[in-house]
């Protein structure tokens, strides 16, 4: 059973995570977190002395969720292309929220990268983890390390570009239209079986 103190801490983290995504980190005040969570300010100070500490906790929360998601894909899907396509499904599933608030990973990285690079270094771990995972999947498909990194970067770049335009245009259909295109691109990267030489 989860202790009450841990439930309170998780409530603060989850509330702050939602506010940081929807409003932005710099536009969310400590008071906003107090009001939205319903946790008294003094109780929040017991766990977190500053808003930066809360941000770092939310980033760890997101990283933990990413790790759980990737581990689940490894267990549920047999082939690397199935795992890559699952990423596409998850990306597209968030089209409504993305149209309103942007990509949850990209938006926080862009915001922090402008004036708070020391915090952005922590947020950037999410991108780096996904990039490593994608690279490994392309290597498992038979691509070289160099090509796998290139393909992984392409996939992540496509996802971010589509997410950005969906948000800028406030049009969730942009993401939905891109689903089959990205999946087809993944299919084109499945190596063809080697054709044996004709007998002399």
From TrEMBL:
Name used for this protein in its record: Transcriptional regulator
Listed Gene3D superfamilies: Tetracycline Repressor, domain 2
Organism whose genome encodes this protein: Solemya velum gill symbiont
Positions of the HTH tetR-type domain: 6-66
Keywords associated with the record: DNA-binding, Transcription, Transcription regulation
Keyword Translocase part of the UniProt annotation: no
Keyword Cytoplasm: no
InterPro entries noted in UniProt: Homeodomain-like_sf, HTH_TetR, Tet_transcr_reg_TetR-rel_C_sf, YxaF_TetR_C
Molecular-function annotations in GO: DNA binding
Residue ranges of the annotated DNA-binding region, renumbered to this chain: 29-48
């Amino acid at each position: 059973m989860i202790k009450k103190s841990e439930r309170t801490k998780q409530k603060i983290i989850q509330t702050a995570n939602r506010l940081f995504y929807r409003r932005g980190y710099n536009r969310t005040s400590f008071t906003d977190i107090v009001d939205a969570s319903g946790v008294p300010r003094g109780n929040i100070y017991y766990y977190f002395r500053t808003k930066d500490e809360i941000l770092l906790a939310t980033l760890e929360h997101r990283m933990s969720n990413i790790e759980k998601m990737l581990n689940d894909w490894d267990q549920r899907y047999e082939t690397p292309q199935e795992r890559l396509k699952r990423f596409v499904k998850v990306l597209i599933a968030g089209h409504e929220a993305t149209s309103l608030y942007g990509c949850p990973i990209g938006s926080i990285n862009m915001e922090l990268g402008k004036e708070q690079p020391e915090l952005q270094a922590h947020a950037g771990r999410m991108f780096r983890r996904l990039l490593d995972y994608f690279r490994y999947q392309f290597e498992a498909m038979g691509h070289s390390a160099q090509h796998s990194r290139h393909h992984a970067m392409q996939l992540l770049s496509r996802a971010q570009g589509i997410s950005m335009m969906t948000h800028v245009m406030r049009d969730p259909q942009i993401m939905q239209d891109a689903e089959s295109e990205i999946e087809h691109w993944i299919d084109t990267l499945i190596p063809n079986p080697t054709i044996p030489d004709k007998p002399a």
